User: Which sequence fits this backbone?
């Protein structure tokens, strides 16, 4: 171990010199700095577009696979003269927001841990698929009919369903950090 210390010290110094030279070069060469900033902005913009597309895809898949029309029930819930419809809209909104947060956590983890757009999109798609599976396993194993309870306006079941999606998003997202 003592023999490696001088070598590690030299390597560390060289790495610090290279980093310092790079920063000085970017400071001196404004065009390179602008290109670096422009490249970062473009990468972030492209990633943002893909994340929005993946989030939209996840919401559309969840909405398509539920037996009730999510957005129609939320739209009908704006009429305050019908408390039942308001309760339905609240239940559906709770459930949808949990699904969105779960997918958002998966996408956050895929962005944070993947350094290429292909890997990010792959993990995002895989995560959405796994969250759909976990959600439907919950529906199959639940002692009540989850969809009909939410359609009736049962906010407790909707909240439980949304938290299942958030928890599954956290679990699936943690796997992205392993790769």
Assistant:
């Amino acid at each position: 171990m003592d023999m490696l210390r001088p070598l590690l010290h030299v390597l560390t110094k060289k790495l610090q010199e290279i980093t310092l030279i790079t920063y000085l070069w970017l400071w001196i060469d404004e065009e390179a700095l602008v290109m670096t900033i422009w490249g970062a902005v473009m990468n972030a913009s492209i990633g943002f577009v893909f994340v929005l597309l993946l989030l939209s895809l996840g919401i559309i898949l969840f909405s398509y696979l539920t037996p009730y029309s999510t957005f129609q029930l939320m739209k009908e819930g704006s009429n305050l003269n019908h408390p039942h419809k308001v309760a339905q809209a609240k239940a559906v909104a709770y459930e949808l927001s949990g699904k969105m947060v779960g997918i958002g956590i998966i996408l956050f983890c895929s962005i944070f841990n993947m350094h290429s757009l292909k890997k990010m999109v792959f993990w995002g798609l895989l995560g959405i698929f796994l969250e759909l599976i976990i959600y439907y396993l919950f529906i199959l194993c639940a002692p009540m009919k989850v969809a009909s309870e939410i359609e009736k306006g049962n906010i407790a079941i909707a909240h439980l369903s949304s938290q299942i999606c958030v928890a599954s998003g956290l679990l699936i997202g943690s796997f992205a950090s392993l790769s």
